[in-house]
Amino acid sequence: MTCYETLFVVKPTLTDEETAAQIAKIKEIVANNGGELLATNDMGMRKLAYQVEKNDRGYYTVLLYKAEGTLIQELERLLKINEEVIKFLTVKYVKQKELAQFNKLVEAANKKAEPAEEAAPVAETTEA
Q1: Residues in contact with 88: Cβ distance below 8 Å, sequence separation at least 6, in sequence order
Q2: Ranges of residues in the chain whose predicted pLDDT is under 70
Q3: Rg (CA), the chain
Q4: Which residue from 6, 16, 91 is spatially nearest to 40, judged by alpha carbons?
């Protein structure tokens, strides 16, 4: 299986729940088509470099995964159809240096996710 990174931008007009649902839907597409999701990096709401579909901002998310090439065709087809996604980009990592960088990105995204997961239970115990 080959390593891929897909960055997509969701419309800023969606609520937090709708944005989370769109991200979950895209993760599900990767999982259902034989991909192995290694890490997710929610970059949050950011300003776009230029207007896209009359939007100045967008919610950025990066998925790092391993998959076969057929998954990419299906994923990009579904991202094109999805009206809530305003931009997307898929990068394929092949060379040894690229794979080393890919592994660093996966580790960094997983480290970023761990403190957020650990902080949530601490907040719940202080309230109780």
Answers
A1: 6, 7, 8, 9, 76, 79
A2: 115-128
A3: 16
A4: 6
Look up residue 12 and give its two tokens. Answer: 């800023």
Whole-model pTM? 0.79
* All domains in the chain, ordered by first residue: 2-127 (3.30.70.60)
Read off the tokens for 90: 């898929």
Structure tokens at 83: 């009206």
User: Over the stretch 65-74, which tens digit does the pLDDT of each residue have?
Assistant: 998 888 899 9
- Collect all residues with Cβ–Cβ distance below 8 Å to 2 and sequence separation of at least 6: 66, 67, 68, 69, 92, 93, 94
DSSP for 7-45, written as a single string: EEEE-TTS-HHHHHHHHHHHHHHHHHTT-EEEEEEEEEE
Residue 112 pLDDT: 78
* pLDDT (0 to 100) of residue 117: 57
Q: How far apart are CA 1 and CA 67, in angstroms?
A: 5
pLDDT the model gives residue 118: 56
Tokens 């997961």 -> residue: 117
